[in-house]
Write a structure and sequence with these properties.
elongated, alpha+beta
């Protein structure tokens, strides 16, 4: 696979050698307009065919208290899908690293700083929660529904093709998932591994075709968020479900995991869900 750096990253100091930040610097965050990646999917700027969020967990969050003692935490961020910009993950990690040797008067000050800086970068309010590393809320769980990974299929296509998506006449309401999702980072070309859940009501999806379609992202180069939007748009166009939720839980890399979800109005993802690979 040939690695291609998108125009939106042409001037970004990402995937290049960079100094480890010694102090907090909000300018390290690198926002990327969502519109450029959505246009090829037929999504008009400001008119979204879905609701959703990008949920992030950061497992390497630390700062110094007022007396210089290190504090460690796990952060959960929720970035709304209707924000005009996403935030590139390597820049997010560098930004968080800047907290490591920075003193804050309280955890509340840390949270307020995160909320302010991330909102400015994304162009929308960003939810921030901080957890202790032993908090039970972080315990891993299993995806609900039926796993389709054991199907005995032949695969020869490793780029996304909606032609694989087929439906029958029976109307069903079901939840399917696969752990075979893999795409590639547009910044570094490194593999991004993940699990994807599809919950819908509509014509019954052919499971063999759905699994081939999801495996088709294996050589696809795009951000996690846009892969989920691509899957959502293809399913809506080919299957025409009454209701649809597409949720991806990507494996942690560099201390960060990203779990975008997109859905028809009124649908919500399973709450407090984190997988073992995250």
């Amino acid at each position: 696979m040939t690695h291609h750096r998108p125009e939106t990253l042409a001037h970004a100091p990402l995937g290049q050698a960079s100094a480890y930040p010694e102090r907090y610097d909000a300018g390290l965050l690198y926002p990327i307009p969502r519109a450029a990646n959505r246009a090829p999917l037929g999504i008009e700027e400001g008119i979204l065919p879905f609701v959703g969020e990008d949920e992030w967990h950061a497992f390497e969050v630390s700062w110094l208290n007022a007396r210089g003692k290190p504090i460690v935490a796990v952060a959960r961020f929720r970035l709304p899908a209707d924000s005009p910009r996403l935030i590139e993950s390597k820049s997010w990690k560098l930004y968080l690293n800047g907290f490591n040797q920075t003193r804050f008067a309280s955890q509340e000050e840390v949270q307020a700083t995160l909320e302010r800086d991330l909102a400015q970068a994304a162009g929308s309010a960003v939810g921030v929660e901080l957890f202790g590393v032993d908090d039970e809320a972080l315990a891993p769980r299993r995806l609900p529904g039926e796993c389709i990974d054991d199907r005995d299929i032949e695969v020869s296509d490793y780029t996304p093709s909606a032609e694989h998506l087929r439906v029958g006449e029976e109307i069903v309401e079901e939840t399917l998932y696969s752990h075979l999702l893999k795409s590639n980072c547009p910044v570094t070309g490194q593999p991004d591994w993940g699990s994807v859940l599809i919950r819908y009501r509509g014509p019954r999806l052919d499971r063999d075709g759905l699994l081939r379609y999801l495996i088709g992202y294996r050589q696809h180069q795009d951000f996690h968020e846009h892969c989920v939007e691509h899957i959502f748009m293809d399913l809506m166009a080919r299957a025409r479900p009454e209701r649809l939720l597409v949720l991806a839980r990507y494996v942690r890399r560099g201390g960060l995991d990203i779990s975008p979800w997109r859905a028809t109005l009124g649908e919500r993802p399973p709450s407090a869900l984190r997988l073992a690979r995250q």
